[in-house]
Design brief:
2 domains, 11 strands, 47% helix, 7-stranded mixed sheet, binds zinc ion, globular, Rossmann fold, binds nicotinamide-adenine-dinucleotide, 14 helices, alpha/beta, Dehydroquinate synthase-like, alpha domain
Length: 351
């Protein structure tokens, strides 16, 4: 069994039947709850069925980011209450980042906090959402604005879940793997370059393990996001703006697809501002182009993008905050760019 042992819990990389059986055998609980959505009930729950005790309680919510809100939390809290949860109950969050963030939030606030176990079932949630203990929901159209930091009792990762994931979701999650390599690990980057297509042929075990390790290393050095942790936002300043811009269009992008093109643009800024060597710029851009070509935004409105970027809470004095690469494998947070300079950049590079 491969483990990443953290302060108060472990991230376990193992066949899920083995890891869950081990965790349950050691856990002292009064009752067990499993949170699923319709997809993870269909595709992921059966894998756990012969490990879960008979008397387990299920809570099913509807899938999708639009349901990551307080209304769904009320439903989860009500279900816990109605089905007799108490302080010694444990909630298992079986699903992608939506289930993990919202289930963790509901558990952490129910009776001032009951224990929860994360079983992330998408690539994105395995390499990103399940690491760093950030929990929460969206509110009034603002993503993740209500929430808290709270550790789970464990995170169980098994790439077997990826088999039923939509190919587009797999490729979207891969953007965060690419990001982890670009900001922190030139060796992983070399390994990723050999992946020509994002599919189930990829040896996910090693790649997910290293990717989680990178995020954990960064989070560990800066648990409350004062500085270093911001390098995880590489590609996200422009990427989030692209995601928001296309959200209301007929062709919305998945998070990772938008981040891929955010990274593409921020690579250029990196070469202009933080000395990313030109050969590295070219290599990284060519790779993103190859993997995400069909999702390249054909048009965007510079002013709308700037408007979205100006809302970012990391900005200071109307200057927009970026994390930029100095070279592949190294990233510097808190690089501020004036609105006007950014406007020109977007118009010149992406008109
Ligand atoms: N807490 C953090 O640090 C953090 C970091 C990154 C992202 N997030 C959050 O994560 C969320 C996005 O997560 P996501 O990309 O996993 O999306 P998601 O949870 O919406 O899952 C994507 C889709 O895949 C389905 N699904 C999940 N696992 C499946 C499987 N094994 N087989 C088939 N279908 C499956 C889901 O039902 C859903 O329809 C966002 O809300 C984001 O804010 C949180
Ligand atoms: Zn992201």
């Amino acid at each position: 069994m491969k483990n990443l042992d953290l302060h108060s819990y472990s991230i376990v990389f193992e066949d899920i039947q083995i890891s869950l059986r081990t965790v349950l055998a050691e856990l002292d609980y009064s009752s067990l709850f499993v949170l699923v959505d319709e997809h993870t009930r269909e595709h992921c729950l059966p894998i756990l069925m012969n490990v879960l005790p008979q008397e387990v309680n299920y809570i099913e919510i509807k899938s999708g980011e639009i349901h990551k809100n307080l209304e769904t939390c009320q439903f989860i809290w009500s279900s816990l209450l109605d089905q007799g949860a108490d302080r010694r109950s444990v909630l298992i969050n079986l699903g992608g980042g939506v289930i993990g963030d919202m289930g963790g939030f509901c558990a952490s606030t129910f009776m001032r906090g009951i224990r929860f176990l994360q079983i992330p079932t998408t690539l994105l949630s395995q390499v990103d959402a399940s690491v760093g203990s950030k929990l929460g929901v969206d509110f009034k159209g603002v993503k993740n604005i209500i929430g808290l930091f709270q550790d789970p009792i464990g995170v169980l990762i098994d790439p077997a879940f990826l088999k039923t994931l939509a190919p587009a979701e797999l490729r979207s999650g891969y953007a965060e793997v690419v990001k982890h390599a670009l900001i922190h690990d030139a060796n992983l980057w070399q390994q990723l370059l050999t992946i020509k297509e994002v599919n189930l042929q990829v040896k996910w075990d090693d790649i997910i393990f290293r990717s989680v390790q990178i995020k954990q290393e960064i989070v560990d050095q800066d648990r409350r996001e004062k500085s270093l942790r911001k390098i995880l936002n590489f590609g996200h300043t422009i990427g989030h703006a692209i995601e928001s811009y296309f959200l209301e269009s007929e062709t919305p992008l998945l998070h990772g697809e938008a981040i891929a093109w955010g990274m593409y643009a921020e690579l250029i800024l990196s070469s202009q501002i933080s000395e990313l060597p030109i050969q590295e710029l070219n290599s990284a851009q060519a790779y993103l182009q190859k993997i995400y070509a069909d999702k390249k935004p054909s048009h965007w409105d510079t002013e709308s993008l700037i408007r979205y970027m100006l809302k970012d809470k990391k900005n200071i004095d109307q200057k927009i905050s970026f994390s930029l690469l100095n070279r592949i494998g190294s990233c510097t947070p808190d690089q501020f760019i004036e609105e006007e300079r950014l406007r020109k950049f977007l118009m010149v590079e992406f008109a």
